[in-house]
Structures are given as C-alpha cells and as structure tokens.
Fold these 2 entries.
Entry 1:
Amino acid sequence: MNFPDTRDRALIKLHEFVRRVGGYSSNRNHVIPHHENVSCLSAAIRHRLLTEWEVAEAPLTRYAASTVEKFTQEVYWRAYWKGWLSLRPQVWDDYLEGIEEHSDADKIRQGKGPVAVMNGFARELIETGYLHNHSRMWFAGYWVHVARLPWQLGAKFFQDHLLDFDPASNTLSWRWVAGLQTPGKTYLPRRTNIEKYLASPLLDPYGLDLLENPTAVMPENVGRPEVTRPLMPRVEVPQDGKVLWIHEEDLNPESSPLGAYRPSKIVVTGEFCGKSKLQKDWLIAALDDVARRAGKHYDASVEHVDDLIAWVRENGEAEIVAMRPEVGPLHDRLDSFKKAGLKLSLLVRPEDRYLRSLARSGFFGFWKKLRLRMASGDFPTSEQQELF
Ligand SMILES: Cc1cc2nc3c(=O)[nH]c(=O)nc-3n(C[C@H](O)[C@H](O)[C@H](O)COP(=O)(O)OP(=O)(O)OC[C@H]3O[C@@H](n4cnc5c(N)ncnc54)[C@H](O)[C@@H]3O)c2cc1C
C-alpha cells in the first residue's frame, strides 16, 4: 500500500488516480485488495500536502464536472466536517471527555473478536494505518451496535492508528454511525451489504451470521449541537521578519497566505506523543519534505524543533507566524503556547474561511452553494467572502 508522504509523491498519485476517476462513483463502494478504486490520498490531504481544491480540480482536465461529481463531493465532505466542527468545538471536547476504557474492547482491537472480517479490518488498520471508507463504516457499526462498545473508544482506536486521522472526519463519522450526528439515524453493518461489496479474497464468512439482522443501540436525548464559535479571528499577515512555524496541520505553506512572507527563520514541529510507529514514520517523512521545500521556497534556514516553547525560550524569539491549526490536538495546545509568552499570528486560508461559513447546517445545502460557486469560477480564489 502506498500513502504518499511527500508533496511530489502525492501529486504523482493524484495524477495516476485521475486516469481512473471516471469509474469512481460506480466502483467506490467496493472494497478490493490494494484499494485501487479509491485514491488513498487522505493522509496527504489531511495534512495539506495537497489542498482539497487542487485534488478536486485535477480530474477536470479530463472529465466534465458532472462525471466526477461524486469524487468532488467526497473531497468536500472532509471540508464540510472540518467547518462543522470548527463552528462547534465543544463536540471535540465532549468526545475527549467521553473516552473510557472497556474490558471487552481489547479483543476487538486485537482482531480476536467473533466476526472474521472485522478482525481483518482491525489488523489492516494497525498494519497499514488505513481502511477503506466502507470498511470504516462496517467496523464502526459493528463496534457500536454489535459489540456494544462506546463509540468514543472506537474513535480513539482509529485516532491511534489512521495515517489520515482527522479530528473532524473521524469524530463526526463515528457520531453519525452511533446515531448522534443525524438524530434518529444510525449505521448498521449488514451481512448482505458486506457480501455484496467486500471482494471475495477478503470475505471470510466466519461470524457473519451475527450481522444477519443487527439491532441498533439508539442513543437517548440526541440534540443538535449549537454553533458556539461563529466567528474566526481575522488576522492579517504580519510584517516580514518573524519566525515561521510549520506544523503538521498544514504542510503546504507555499500555497497559503504565508506564501509570499519573508521569515527570519523557519521552525518545523510535529506532535508525536501517542502516535503509532506508522503514524510517526509517515509524519517524519512529511515533515522532512516540507522542511526541504520551505528552505528552498523562502530561502531561509529551517530547524526541526521538538518543543516549540523550549525553543522560543532558548532563542528569545517570541513572535511567531503560522497557519491556524483547526480544532484538534494541536489546537488544544495553543493556550499553553500563549501562556508561555508566545505571540502567535495565526492565518486562515480564504477558501477555508468561506467553506467554514457554509457548514452551519447540512451537507447538501453546503454542497449546493459550493457547486454553484465552483461552476461560476469563483472558487477557489484568494478572495473568498464568507457568508456571515
Ligand atoms: C468511522 C469513520 C471514520 C473516519 N475517519 C476519518 C479520518 O480520521 N480522516 C479522514 O480523512 N477521513 C475519515 N473518514 C472518511 C473516509 O473514510 C476517508 O476519508 C477515506 O476512506 C479515505 O480514503 P481515500 O483517500 O482513498 O478516499 P477517496 O475515496 O479517494 O476520497 C478522496 C478524498 O475525499 C475525502 N473523503 C472521502 N470520503 C470521505 C468521507 N466519507 N468523509 C470525509 N472525507 C472523505 C478524503 O480526504 C479522501 O482522501 C472516516 C469515515 C468513517 C466512516
């Protein structure tokens, strides 16, 4: 399996995939060995080796927008979830607070449960850092509604292994499976569906009878989380000469509002605590890649730094400019950076600001407005007007 960890490799994989993307809408749901019917670009997109809009635009060199609409939509599901969570950060805090160990979880995580295909997915996740979307849905549905384990612990299992782990896509997809995201709707893994979409070499029937007619665990008192952070601070690009901080949330500063910035120095950091070996290895390669690209692009010295606060104290450099990390583990650390005296100027891409403003309600309203904007050539541009 190949999950590109440099921008050049990701671009090569994107262009290879573009040749096959015409069949995406009919083939996407099938889980086949090596996953050639999907792009496997999620880790690159999540860490912004590629932006969503360059991935969405690439197929348009060969196909009409309508032919590849399903693929474009999926790419923007990610942006939708990200915007949705950014407007309601309390949902991330609630997830973290709800993680509690359970004595039955280990055997499912270790691939020693009663359903062979689910054991295969648990092993695939640990051994490759990836699962196909349909496998993620089946596994999450099995975890919640058949094994009857807390969804937060399943989401944490994915968090600890996925190379593309994304606080928004992961948390909100697990909430959706558990019936919390769309009140009254859960996702159940059914034997007939698995037999239809899982390729025969992967389809071990052992235990599938447990998925004959599963019953949903319906959560009680499901509410619709309110928008608690409607506005995103508007920060202008500061004067040249400050330290540019590059982190794993955006490994493509060249194409960001900081592309023309002239930093005095560049520091690159990664969060390694709690990550699996595969996640660490992927990130080390991606950070090396961005350090190399940034050194060339900005013509400045680049330093890999383990601890940003300690580095600032040693170097007496408190003024830092960076792309804003979205809701998630790195965002959670911003307060401690500020308390330690770091003066952070955190920038947001205009496209992200606009997409976020569309994510107040459901995906289909989001998509309708975005599709119109794309059709008129107004997205992406560097001057996006948010809706509020
Ligand atoms: C329980 C569960 C947990 C998930 N956790 C994550 C996660 O932590 N990180 C993550 O990036 N995706 C997550 N997804 C969404 C989706 O499964 C993956 O994005 C997709 O499988 C990645 O494979 P790909 O790059 O080959 O996708 P492709 O099918 O090639 O799609 C292209 C891109 O579109 C985006 N995308 C596709 N499907 C979805 C989707 N359903 N939701 C959001 N974005 C999508 C991804 O960026 C993906 O790389 C989760 C889905 C479920 C059901």
Entry 2:
Amino acid sequence: MGERNSKPRATGRRWAAAAAAALLALGLYASTFVVSYADLLRSDDPLLAMDVARLAPARVARVEEIRSVEQLQAVLREARAQGLKVSISGSRHSQGGQSYREGAVVLNMRGFNRILVVDPAALTVTVESGATWDEVQRAIASHGLAIRVMQSSNIFTVGGTLSANAHGRDIDVTQVVEVVERFRLLLADGSIVEVSRQENPELFSLVIGGYGLYGVILDVTLRVTRDELYEQRSVSMDYTDFPAYFAQQVKPDREIALALARPSIDPDPQSFLREIVVVTWRRAGSGQTGTFELTEEQHVLRDKFFLGLSRRYDWAKALRWTLQKRIELGAGEARIVSRNNAMRPPLAPLELLEYRSPRDTDIIQEYYVPTETFIPFLDRFREILLAGDMNVLSSTVRYVTPNAIPALAYAPRGDVFAVIQMSNVGLSTAEQARAAAVTRLLVDAALDHGGTYYLTYQLYPTPAQLQRAYPNAWHAFERKRFYDPDELFTSQFYERYGHTEPR
Ligand SMILES: Cc1cc2nc3c(=O)[nH]c(=O)nc-3n(C[C@H](O)[C@H](O)[C@H](O)COP(=O)(O)OP(=O)(O)OC[C@H]3O[C@@H](n4cnc5c(N)ncnc54)[C@H](O)[C@@H]3O)c2cc1C
C-alpha cells in the first residue's frame, strides 16, 4: 500500500517545489520594482559627490559637516589658504551639480539646523539654514503655525529653498522670496552681513534664487501662517478647460488656499497630457473637524511598486493614472486635512521617490509659461515628449504669481503656470544625449511661448538658452564676481553658465 502511494506523492512534491520556485521567482521579479539590488552592493565613496539624480558625479576635496558659524569661518579661511574652491549643499535635491564641483570643499549644511525662535504673535520663525521643512514643521505645529511657502515635499533645507527661490501650492503667496523677512550671509572674505529688503537689498535679490554663489546663508527669518483645516476637493477636465476654470473658479475663491493640477500620464493618446485633475484645498466650514497631528509617510512599498512598474510598462502607467485619479477624485466623502499635513507625507510623499538604479534615473524639469499660453505650450510640450520617446512618470501644474525681486527671476512679469514633468532616463552617454536634446527643445518651446525654465534641474540647457530665459543673468554673474572676486564659491552650475557673455 505504501509503495502504491509513493509515486503520486513524489509527483506532488515535484509540483509543489516547482510552484514554490515559480512563486519565488515571481516575488523576486516583483521586488525589483521596489528594491535596486545593484544598489545594495554599492560601496559609497564619501568624496564622490552626487545629487539625487546622480547625473553629474564629481570627486570633491572634502566634505565639512557644518555645525556653527565659527566653524564655517575657519573652513573658509583654510580653503582660501589652500587655494581650494567651496560649494554649499543642503539636502542635495537640485539636479545639476548646483551644490558641488570637482576638487571643492563641500559645506554640508544639514547639521546647521537649529530652530532659533518661534514667534506665534509676529507669525515668524527664525531657523538655521540647514533645517529641513520637516524640522520646521515639527517645531511650529505645536504653536498652531504652518509654513506659508514650501515645495511639494518637506525634505528640502531652508538654505536650498531660498537659493532656488522655490515655489509651492499656495495660490496667494507663491514664491519663497515673498516670505523671507531677513537673513544673515557669510561672505567669501569671512565677514557677515545682515540682508533684507532694507539692508543690503542687492544681496537680497542676488542670494534668493542665486544658487549658493554669493555666500553662505546662516539664520533666516520667515513669515509663517496659522495652521488651519482644509477640505480637499478634486475635479477632472480637459486641459483646454483648465485655464478658464482656474481663472473663474479657483483664483477668485478667497476660501481656496492651495491648488495643484495633475495632467494624465496614461499613454493613451486621448488621455496623455490632455485629461487633467485639479485638486484644491478649501478652508473647512465651521462644522467640519479634523486632526492637526502631523502625519507620516504610508504605503511606501505599495506605491514604490506601482511607480516601479510604470517605469517599465505603459499598461502600468495607465493603471497608476486610473488608481491615482480614483483616489484623488474620491467617492464623494469630505476629506479634511490640516495645512501642515497637506504639505507633508503621505499627501506629499518622499520615500516613494527614492530610486537608485545603476542604469537609469528619474529627472524632474519645470517650465514656467504665461497662463494665456498654457494651452498651446502644453500641445507643444506633449508633441516634443512623444517625439523624443520620453518615459514620463508624472506631471503637475502649479500657479505662480510674478515677482521681479530675485535677480534670476523665473516669473518676473505676469502670472504663470509652472508645468512640471518627471521622466525616467537612461544614464548611458547616448541616453543622456537624447534627454539633453529633448530638454533643449522643451526649453525653446517655453521661451517661444513667453516662458522660462527652472534652473534647479539638469545642466542640459545651453548657456544661450539660459541667457534668453534670464536676461539679467550676466549682470547677476558679474555681481557675483564683485562680492566674491576670487570666485571662492562655485559649483558645476556656475562653471557651465557663469562666464558666458550674452550674445
Ligand atoms: C522631488 C522634488 C520635488 C521638488 N518640488 C519642488 C517644488 O514643489 N517647488 C519648487 O520650487 N522646487 C521643487 N523642487 C526643487 C527644489 O526646491 C530645489 O532643488 C531646492 O534647491 C532643493 O533644496 P536642497 O536643500 O536639496 O538644496 P541643494 O540641492 O542641496 O542646494 C541647492 C542650491 O542651494 C545652495 N545652498 C544650499 N544651502 C545653502 C546655504 N545655507 N547657503 C547658501 N546656499 C545654499 C546650494 O549651493 C545649491 O546651489 C523639487 C525637487 C525635487 C527633487
């Protein structure tokens, strides 16, 4: 009887083993969308500087972990004595070597991050420039305060944010320059100056949006606001309806505080960069309640899995768009969220975006176009991305009001829509050349539609394109050499663009 049963039992075991092996292989394959195994084997060279996109690695002389002003002054003295250049880095999320260069001493400002004063009466906060928005949020939330202007994520430093003049989702106060009251700046000669609209106003204009070329931003006083509850609402429409919808329904509504729009990444030609979901955060009514407790990131593995799938497959992009739209549009229930939480994970995720494949990377780009030319620009934008076969993973649109104070102003005149795209591109020379060529076409498209592009990303645009987008650039770089005649502060960004005279 035992012998009669042994054959089927052996066959059963073989099937079970095969099924287990198949499941294991499937699990391993699925995990490659979440984990970069090659990255686990990587040994970090502490002197190989890179930003988050890993496009422009460079060997630096040393990295100084900054904790105090006295230490900063000593490091500058030593660098000058050794004939070394200096670069300044925050969270290193700029993507074009703005925070380092070959052979430089890099000041890592992340440890220079004390919260100095929280003043709920004056609605201001004073912090050291290496503090991240997350650290600022944690310090001010218990006082019932929230940040006025910050990026979509809270990982960036205050110094990095000022140096890019970042913008956020608030539709009344859009650029960080608007909320900076004052800061102290350490100049190349080791002296410290107070900078505000009244004191050293030229430095105020040069440093905000000046990419670390004029000195080290020390402590900064920023205007903040009261934390409050918002109701998050979303509506889907065709992109051609968006500018009028924004002008008639969003902008004039005094109760709407934050807004963003998300064009479709579904490769279906009827949908790709045509369908658009507009999300608004409107002050909650008196009967609506919600929590002011700070939220943290959730579902990282799940979201990484779907983002990873969409890097490789068009069907997964369509699926991600459908799921995202379903979540964003909701099922009719009121979604109440505090201002602080609207500006931190999980609503503004971070870990999801961490990606370190040795073969490819995710690049972000941003174009600012007048609200009147948004529709023709988006048509050209779509055409160029499709012709260039770009692997577009996400796109958002924000509203930015003009401000001509920064010498390198990206929106000096009228209201603009900031059009952002994130694409996955190969790291090989050929793939990079293709990404650069597509980017130059996109920059030309923005310029032809009366717009500009964001300097915080790759160095793909030509110096002539930068001069066209920023007619004041030559003057700004000349003034850099006035304040820093030995060009102590430098970066890959400055070396590419800082010495090209306008044609
Ligand atoms: C996923 C992602 C989302 C983003 N979202 C937005 C967004 O919503 N809105 C937006 O406007 N931008 C956005 N950005 C761009 C971002 O705001 C800028 O790249 C910003 O500069 C990053 O800050 P950081 O701390 O990483 O600075 P870093 O990249 O480390 O440095 C940026 C520049 O600041 C200089 N710098 C840093 N600290 C100091 C200091 N203490 N003194 C003087 N100079 C200093 C550096 O030298 C460098 O030139 C985004 C970028 C990424 C990658």
